[in-house]
């Protein structure tokens, strides 16, 4: 038994919020970071993706490490390492240095999320699992959403380095709480399956590199992308065959016999795609196209977190009274609706639609996350819980990394396509040119330059809208999965 479950929960959630906050808190500060570190806008995105890739690769180690080293030691060591690497990121002087520190930060942070979820599942009785997942979901969902707001404030008032320094007091408080209230557990010998881990790590890393590099090298026209694709397919194939044949595999594939667990993994991958990619798109859209200062960008995005908090408070009570599948369907519908509203964004508009769509999206995602976590682990065997929570976090991280790379690639490609289409319509005989700019485009190079700038601005806006529509389609595609989930208590899969 845990002596102080309330204090332990608070300490766990401090560590959880600190970890997920770092996936988005640097988004708003990227332009300032690029200037300070001497990096291009494309190069500086490695500050985000290196963290996500490292976290995704290390996440499956959680179950093994907790059994062999002990959950308390792993949790405390991860918090200490994450806090230290946050300090190192804050004092970095160049891009290579920053990327290396972010990789180690991701490695330490990888175990925090699955361990937090596993501890909450263990210290709460079955009837309180829904409320426990609401608390856990609040940290997972609100952290990334308030990240841009907090990052914008710290960057504007202090310096971009404070988006990392903010972790120091939080990490120290979380470390003290975990050391004080998380009891020690017995450890057991478990051979480390290096082959299985290596195959999985290679496939995950190659997948992220394929999406990161694809746009720059021409996707399947490049031998580099074919190499990455080959590593992804062969790595996953070798991993699956090895885990089926090995006596003590890195991941026990028997847990994938649970239908709810498998459907939950598919679902959380889609949530990772839509949630984090949307958060990566909004700061550059607001700052570059709409002219919002850094701190106002954060303030405009803040209501999204308010919507998530409200839904978390509500759904924690509803999940034990209503069919969780209905709550998930409602959340998906609200999320898709918000993305539809976002497809109506224009360069010349006030912040009203940005705020309302953000509140709706935050509210919808909160309705999805808590009942989805409850459904995913409703029928999983307790001895699979450590590996299952690690796999759940892994799939969410992979979805986040793929989503960011996907929307970045779509944005770059569609900006070029849209610019060509719009510029092709601005001929001397076109009505909009003949009536509004009679002869000036031919007479004045300055007017031609201004017209080209306006065309580029509109092309970029349409490209952002294309991404919002894509995310809406992906969200709607998740609806059939709701009907494949079993309601808790309706029988084991």
Automatic annotation (TrEMBL):
<feature type="transmembrane region" description="Helical">
    <location>
        <begin position="322"/>
        <end position="340"/>
    </location>
</feature>
<dbReference type="GO" id="GO:0022857">
    <property type="term" value="F:transmembrane transporter activity"/>
</dbReference>
<feature type="transmembrane region" description="Helical">
    <location>
        <begin position="43"/>
        <end position="62"/>
    </location>
</feature>
<keyword id="KW-0813">Transport</keyword>
<keyword id="KW-1133">Transmembrane helix</keyword>
<dbReference type="InterPro" id="IPR020846">
    <property type="entry name" value="MFS_dom"/>
</dbReference>
<dbReference type="InterPro" id="IPR004638">
    <property type="entry name" value="EmrB-like"/>
</dbReference>
<dbReference type="InterPro" id="IPR036259">
    <property type="entry name" value="MFS_trans_sf"/>
</dbReference>
<feature type="transmembrane region" description="Helical">
    <location>
        <begin position="261"/>
        <end position="282"/>
    </location>
</feature>
<feature type="transmembrane region" description="Helical">
    <location>
        <begin position="294"/>
        <end position="315"/>
    </location>
</feature>
<keyword id="KW-0812">Transmembrane</keyword>
<dbReference type="GO" id="GO:0005886">
    <property type="term" value="C:plasma membrane"/>
</dbReference>
<feature type="transmembrane region" description="Helical">
    <location>
        <begin position="133"/>
        <end position="154"/>
    </location>
</feature>
<feature type="domain" description="Major facilitator superfamily (MFS) profile">
    <location>
        <begin position="8"/>
        <end position="490"/>
    </location>
</feature>
<feature type="transmembrane region" description="Helical">
    <location>
        <begin position="160"/>
        <end position="182"/>
    </location>
</feature>
<keyword id="KW-0472">Membrane</keyword>
<feature type="transmembrane region" description="Helical">
    <location>
        <begin position="360"/>
        <end position="382"/>
    </location>
</feature>
<protein>
    <submittedName>
        <fullName>DHA2 family efflux MFS transporter permease subunit</fullName>
    </submittedName>
</protein>
<dbReference type="InterPro" id="IPR011701">
    <property type="entry name" value="MFS"/>
</dbReference>
<dbReference type="Pfam" id="PF07690">
    <property type="entry name" value="MFS_1"/>
</dbReference>
<keyword id="KW-1003">Cell membrane</keyword>
<feature type="transmembrane region" description="Helical">
    <location>
        <begin position="99"/>
        <end position="121"/>
    </location>
</feature>
<feature type="transmembrane region" description="Helical">
    <location>
        <begin position="74"/>
        <end position="93"/>
    </location>
</feature>
<feature type="transmembrane region" description="Helical">
    <location>
        <begin position="194"/>
        <end position="211"/>
    </location>
</feature>
<feature type="transmembrane region" description="Helical">
    <location>
        <begin position="394"/>
        <end position="416"/>
    </location>
</feature>
<comment type="similarity">
    <text>Belongs to the major facilitator superfamily. EmrB family.</text>
</comment>
<feature type="transmembrane region" description="Helical">
    <location>
        <begin position="223"/>
        <end position="241"/>
    </location>
</feature>
<feature type="transmembrane region" description="Helical">
    <location>
        <begin position="461"/>
        <end position="485"/>
    </location>
</feature>
<dbReference type="InterPro" id="IPR005829">
    <property type="entry name" value="Sugar_transporter_CS"/>
</dbReference>
């Amino acid at each position: 038994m845990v002596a102080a479950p309330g204090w332990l929960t608070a300490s766990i959630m401090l560590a959880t919020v600190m970890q997920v906050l770092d996936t988005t808190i640097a988004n708003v500060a990227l332009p300032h970071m690029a200037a300070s570190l001497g990096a291009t806008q494309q190069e500086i995105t490695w500050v985000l993706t290196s963290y996500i890739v490292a976290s995704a690769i290390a996440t499956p180690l959680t179950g093994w490490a907790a059994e062999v080293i002990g959950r308390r030691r792993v949790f405390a060591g991860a918090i200490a390492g994450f806090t230290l690497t946050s300090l190192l990121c804050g004092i970095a002087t160049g891009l290579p240095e920053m990327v290396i520190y972010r990789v180690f930060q991701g490695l330490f942070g990888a175990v925090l999320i699955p361990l937090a979820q596993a501890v909450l599942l263990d210290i709460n009785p079955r009837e309180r699992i829904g409320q426990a997942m609401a608390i856990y979901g609040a940290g997972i969902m609100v952290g990334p959403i308030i990240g841009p707001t907090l990052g914008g404030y710290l960057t504007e008032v202090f310096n971009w380095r404070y988006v990392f320094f903010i972790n120091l007091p939080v990490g120290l408080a979380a470390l003290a709480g975990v050391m004080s209230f998380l009891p020690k557990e017995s450890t057991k010998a478990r051979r480390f399956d290096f082959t299985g881990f290596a195959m999985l790590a290679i496939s995950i890393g190659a997948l992220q590199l394929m999406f990161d590099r694809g746009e720059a090298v021409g996707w399947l026209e490049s031998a580099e992308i074919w190499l990455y694709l080959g590593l992804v397919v062969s790595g996953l194939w070798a991993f699956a065959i090895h885990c089926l044949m090995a006596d003590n595999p890195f991941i026990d594939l028997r847990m994938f016999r649970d239908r709810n667990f498998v459907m939950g993994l598919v679902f959380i991958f889609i949530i990772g795609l839509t949630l984090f990619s949307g958060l990566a798109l909004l700061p550059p859209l607001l700052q570059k196209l709409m002219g919002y200062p850094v701190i106002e960008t954060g303030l405009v995005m803040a209501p999204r977190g308010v919507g998530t908090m409200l839904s978390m408070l509500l759904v924690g009570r509803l999940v034990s009274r209503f069919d969780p599948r209905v709550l998930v369907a409602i959340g998906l519908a609200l999320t898709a609706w918000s993305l539809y509203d976002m497809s109506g964004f224009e360069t010349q508009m006030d912040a009203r639609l940005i705020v309302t769509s953000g509140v709706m999206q935050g509210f919808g995602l909160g309705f999805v996350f808590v009942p989805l976590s409850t459904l995913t682990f409703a029928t999983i065997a307790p001895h699979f819980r450590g590996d299952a929570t690690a796999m759940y976090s892994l799939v969410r991280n992979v979805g986040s990394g793929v989503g960011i790379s996907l929307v970045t690639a779509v944005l770059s490609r569609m900006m070029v396509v849209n610019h060509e289409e719009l510029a092709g319509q601005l001929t001397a005989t076109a009505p909009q040119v003949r009536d509004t700019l009679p002869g000036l485009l031919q007479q004045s190079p300055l007017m031609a330059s201004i017209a080209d700038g306006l065309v580029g601005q509109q092309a970029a806006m349409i490209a952002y809208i294309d991404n919002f529509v894509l995310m809406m389609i992906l969200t709607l595609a998740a609806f059939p999965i709701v009907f494949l989930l079993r309601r808790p208590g309706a029988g084991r899969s």
